[in-house]
Amino acid sequence: MAGSQRDKALAFAKLPEMTGAISFEQVSVAIRSRIDAIVVLDDDPTGTQTVHDVPVLTHWGMDVLSKELSQGTFLFYILTNSRSLPASEATELMSKIGTNLHKVAEQMKLKFWVVSRSDSTLRGHFPLETDVLVNRLAIKDGICFLIPAFFEGDRYTMEDVHYLQKGSALVPVSETPFARDKVFGYQSADLKDWIVEKSRQRIPYSSIESLSINDLRLKSVTQLSAQLKRLKSGGYCVINAAAYEDLTKFSLALIQTSIDPIFRSAASLVAALAGLSKQPLLKRSDFQLDSENGALIVVGSYVPLSSQQLSFLHEHNKGVLSLEVDVQALLGDDVAEYLYIIRNKMEVGIQEGRDVVIFTSRDLVSVAVKSQNLAIGRTVSNSLISLVRELNTRPRYILAKGGITSSDIATDALGVERAMVLGQIIPGVPVWRLGDESKFQNLNYLVFPGNVGGEHGLYDVINTLGSASGLPSK
Q: Which CATH number fits domain 6-274: 3.40.50.10840, 3.20.20.140, 3.40.50.970, 3.60.15.10?
């Protein structure tokens, strides 16, 4: 475990002012002269929480990739949902995608960079996924950049320690519930130590370097490029960051080198690396909400923040119809009958114009074996999928709470193959418009991460979009 809690205001006051700031526009021009595309492999759908007007694909066959790239798409996401898979299946999946990307790049004579987008609280298959991608993409003597900063979610990296803001304090992520995850738990918030830990000491500490915030803010782009060029080939580099200006300057410095990179990052890097400027948060008027049906909210995430948000919603919005899915019941007999009863209640509620909230019981069911925990998660997910897949009434919109939940609902329940990211409704919560091939064409689909937003975040989103029934929301 590294670091201790810090007062955010004091910590940020000690950071130097940026010299030679680099704009999103400067990065946008520079990177398009360096490469042809950026492909983001997203281990759950929440990685789209910093971008807008960008497509998301749920298939990765060579024909699909070729079609997207032939349209001149510079930035797109591939939803892998690999965080929900055991390591062996994640390895196989990354191998397939990496191989297909490499073949398409050679056939089309294109150069692109790949971002392995994962959790800002450090959960996921690392270094497994980047190891496989480096091999399948034939990256030789490249550098793996670790960049988990996610400003929209108040995640910052300073002095190589990764922090999550809670109130006025910056808390090392190793001291948060996310570090005690049953599948992806860890001990250290010092990212160099974390890399060694997650590799089970295979990656030596000596092969890991970093760029400090002082480096990024006090050195010129030319000096930073020179520093990057001195990094050990085949090694790892932690990028500290407390604001977008740190990442845009890093991006331009990297673009001006010949380094062949692979990135393991949270969502903020993608916007900076692509030079994708910010847009205002979406308003109710940006949604197609003319239906008199109610909305469907599916809460599968079990992290404490999601439970707090659910409790706040129940306390302050008496108009929603809340239906609990008991996880213990899903692991027993008569599951089909149990789900049939819930599904009927869903259908009636939505038809009556009520916003229906489906949520899994809050007591986490777990065992000592990681693979069995994933299997339990899959059973729960399959049940939520069946509830949505067999829904006959089109909701006003669908909100899915939790990364794995939102991925499974999108791909397996709604049949999404390609969606367009419209933007965010609150910081860190993206909104997709589903494609014509999906169960509900052009539906607004809100991807609400389990670990994002304040206690009232879920309530705020639902309240912003209003209720078709006219029932009181407070």
A: 3.40.50.10840
pTM, two decimals, is 0.91
Report the b/e string of 125-137 with b at 16+ CB within 10 A: bbbbbbbbbbebb
CATH number listed for the domain at residues 284-465: 3.40.980.20
The values of phi and psi at residue 435, to 5°, are -80, 175
Q: Phi-psi region for residue 200, left (φ > 0), alpha (ψ -120 to 50) or beta?
A: left
CA distance 158 to 160: 5
Residue identified by tokens 């399948």 is: 136
Q: Of 273, 240, 231, which is closest to residue 255 (Cα–Cα)?
A: 273
Q: Catalogue the E-assigned strands of 378-448.
A: 398-401, 418-426, 429-434, 444-448
User: Mean pLDDT of successive 10-residue segments in the chain (474 residues)?
Assistant: 84 98 98 98 92 97 98 97 93 99 98 97 97 97 97 96 97 96 95 98 97 99 99 97 99 98 98 96 89 93 86 93 90 87 97 95 60 68 92 97 89 97 95 97 94 91 80 44
Residue whose token pair is 């990364």? 403
